[in-house]
Amino acid sequence: MIFLFFVKLSSGGKYMERVKTVVLVLLAALLGAGIVFAAQPEASREKGKALFNDPALGSTGKSCNDCHPNGKGAKKAAAKNDDDIARIVNGCITHSIKGKALDVNSVEMRSLVLYIKSFGEVKKPAAPNKAPVGC
Length: 135
Ligand code: HEC
Known about the structure:
This protein folds into two domains: 2-39; 45-118, Orthogonal Bundle (Cytochrome Bc1 Complex, Chain D, domain 2). Helix 4 (82-95) packs across helix 5. By secondary structure, the protein is mostly helical. It has five helices and no strands. Heme C binds next to helix 3, helix 4 and helix 5.
């Protein structure tokens, strides 16, 4: 009983401590969530390029780049849609380099798709300085 009374008395003074603790815990949770969000891996052309050159994608010791140096032979796929490119990539992974097909929504696959699409980018010459027709 005496103990309970003591706790009751002192709890008034500890109220702010508790509030502080709750605020700190909330802040830590928010920060943690922020870090997790920031660490979410994003697909990028650079990652795709690294994978394209990585023999670890398969089991034959060859990388995509060994057969397609700088995208050679794979360029026509650049104009296709993402799903089709992903299917082609998985076909090449499983057949050409005897690897395991990638999840089509994985960061790895999306990165490879981004990289393959970049093969289709042709530098356009500067627009000719002509007056518009019909003026
Ligand atoms: C052992 C050689 C070899 C390796 C390794 C290889 N490919 Fe291919 N790939 C080919 C051949 C052969 C073709 C067919 C070329 C053609 O149709 O002109 C092809 C075609 C392609 C195409 C174009 C298909 C189309 O229909 O437009 C893409 C894209 C492609 N490969 C991506 C990859 C990727 C990504 C990898 C790595 C996972 C890879 N290739 C690894 C040999 C290879």
